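Hey, I'm writing a tutorial for new members on how sequence and structure tokens pair up, and I'd like a real worked example in the thread rather than a made-up one. If someone can provide the structure for the chain below, I'll link this post from the tutorial.
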Amino acid sequence: GSEAASEQGQEEEVEDSLKEHMDNLLDKSAKTRQAALQSLRLALSSKTLSEFLLERRLMLTDSLEKCLKKGKGEEQALAGTVLTLLCLQMGSGPEGEEVFRSLKPLLVSVLTDSTASPSARQSCATALGMCCYIAAADLE
């Protein structure tokens, strides 16, 4: 009994922390956004959170879109990595496809932007490839 309650308490802590990081993606400070992206990258790469993310995928997708559009260098690279992990978490169903479809044009835009940093372009190329492999319904 107490083990299950303890586990649920830990899960709530993780979710509260993730919600805070997601809120921080909209902060005015680039350092705060980057720290939030790094924390999300760590969380998404270490734990399956698909149910939690399912409810918040649109908000997270919008936040990642802003980071890719307005961010520079490191922030764009981190946003691409988090997007890849989000696609992995969402899987090959309609949710993953929706995330990919909404951000694909932006990924292509950063990838083809010769003024973007090499790390941002590389991260967007990886995100584009991985998300396309996982979630693209259209075979082209």
